[in-house]
User: Fold this.
Amino acid sequence: MLRRRVLAGLFTAALLATAGCSGSGDSGGDVTLTYGVWDKNQVPAMEKIATEFTKAHPTVKVKVELTPNKEYWTKLQTAVTGGSAPDVFWMNAPRFGLYASSGVLAPMDSKADLSKYPKSLVDTYNWQGRQYALPKDFDTIGLWYNKALFDAAGVKYPDETWTWETLTEAAKKLTDPAKGQFGIAAPAYSQENYYNTIFQSGGTVVSADRKKSGYEDPATVKGLQFWVDLINRHKVSPTVKQMSDTEPTQLFTSGKVAMMYGGSWEAVGFAKDDALKGKIDVAVLPRGDKRAVVIHGLGNVVYAKSKHPKEALEFATFLGSEQAHRIQAETGTVIPAYEGTQATWVGAMPQYQLKAFLDELPYAVAYPISKNTAGWADQERKLLPLAWDGSRDLPGVAKELATAMNAALAKE
Amino acid sequence: MTATESRVADAVTRAPGWLARLGGSGGAGRRPRGDWPWAYLMIAPTGLGLAVFYLWPVVQTVYFSFTEWGAFGGHTWVGFANYTTLFQDPAVGQALRNTFVYSGLVLLGVPLSIVLAVLLNTPKLRGVSVYRTLYFLPVVTMPAAVAMLWRWIYNGDYGLLNYGLSLFGVDGPYWVSDGRVVLYAMAVVGVWTLIGYNAVIFLAGLQGIPQHYYEAAAIDGAGRVRQFFSITLPLLSPSIFFVTVLTVIGSLQMFDLIYMMMDRGNPALTDNRTIVYLFYEAAFVDNRRGYAACIAVVLLAVILTLTVVQFRLQKKWVHYE
Assistant:
């Protein structure tokens, strides 16, 4: 009978589909964990760590699952909603609050020694007194500069004595409108730019109890004004329009700007660029009223609904171990978070004074977050460029941002 | 052959008969009710697909627009709260205005497509298939690649467009970062991507116009221009109607160009968002899924209204042969 055959066929297909979804072999006591990551460059290191883990735990295999950054969070959120997220996955600070507060993550009650990691990173992944991740790596911001342009203008290279004033004066000397050359790039980027100067002028982004915006504080506005002045008053930076057409990094690598605030993660890309060979270096950030730099790092978290909670926790603990961090350091892609493993990273690219990124650790401030960071970070992205652009005045924009942010925080 | 299989064969051989009756011609004659289940079975795969992937989500979206969502599922009924917020949100009014402006600008591309199609339809045009391919290429190009390409062209400092303008002593703006021009710049890209597709539809329409009309008109002394307005345009009106409806629906959903061409820190983004961009922000950036569903429902209502109006108006200007 045709009908019966069709039905049988449909059934088989449905069964196969179901099997396909849940096919993470539980047979024979062997366990396969999935590990969600988003950076292609780090996959080899992650796989090496997974292999090392399997050596110590022969019955547990780990499959590294790569999702490009742009889709990672959308996919993860859908997977969590459907109850099928990876057993262990990468987490960043802005998203952490949302995941931890929704009970998506399993607490990391491991015996790992938390004093081996930078404190601000450990604190970032602490939610209401419980630790949810061991730090994986970290990044700080440094002042990248073009030595060739400094030499040509006869300006001394940046060092730890620099202040906002030194920077501004140097930028003036390095600006040459005739050549379309600017002293510095001053984009409206949070982590790379204005978070650092906000903390340096004694301001805050979000209050310690994460209930109130810091944008009403004059000290915070001072940290923002620094960048607006570089563009509109001193005219030593390209305009926001120019920088949204051509990214600051691109302007820097093509010698159109002499300095930029950039993350430690830029080092790998710069090192690969032959045209930059011997031309650039990095220094600690110039100080404002005080020294500060924003620090951010990833954490490895365990999915609360993992089918293999014990093994997942073991793997996550291993990911936080000295051995795992040493493997990461050798690739040079990120600064490992475990104490004493950073020297390997610094040594990976001896042409730059990468030590600057570590020298900043004693005064590093944690990346500002709340439960739903995305809710107000989006407002920063939308409003602040209007002040950078000069189309609206900064105090007014800051006030509007504070109001919008307070409303978002009140809903959390 | 089993009984069922023979019935299939039977239904297939008789198909032209009932198809004709479906069309309404013939009228008289026995209606073979036994065939209807088979007809439904044949369209079931498409019908089910439509129901499951298109109709059901629409129903769900309408339902979700009355709820508030947690970041990871779980929703609570909030009544009309989302709609109240929406109608008080100045960003929504602005986004609707931007969307309509963009849509209106893209519609200007329709006459262009007609002219292009007429040119491509010129008899004895050499290399006609090369031209057709060239104009159709943007349609089959990935939106991401299109956006990249136009970002280079539009770049304020190093772009091709401003270089071209500088040769005439004109200092061009930052096309995708200047709030005053960005919608126009986007619309040009929108027209550019659509023109080939629309032209192909018009081309098909043109080739359906019998040649003897033109011959008769020529004998009566009508020139090329007169022929175009008195024969081509009226007889092409069904295609024009079709293309206009599709263009309106498509352009009201503009999102990808903004998403791909305007990065973080772009000062023009805030005031030039379209309604679908607003939807994207609510759903995937701010985690306000219920509100996002609400925006989607409003957009659906807008598109539906405009389409109904277009269908009403068509009686006045569309000529079917």
Q: What stands out?
A: Residues 1-28 of chain A have pLDDT under 50 and may be disordered. Residues 2-21 of chain A form the longest helix (20 residues).
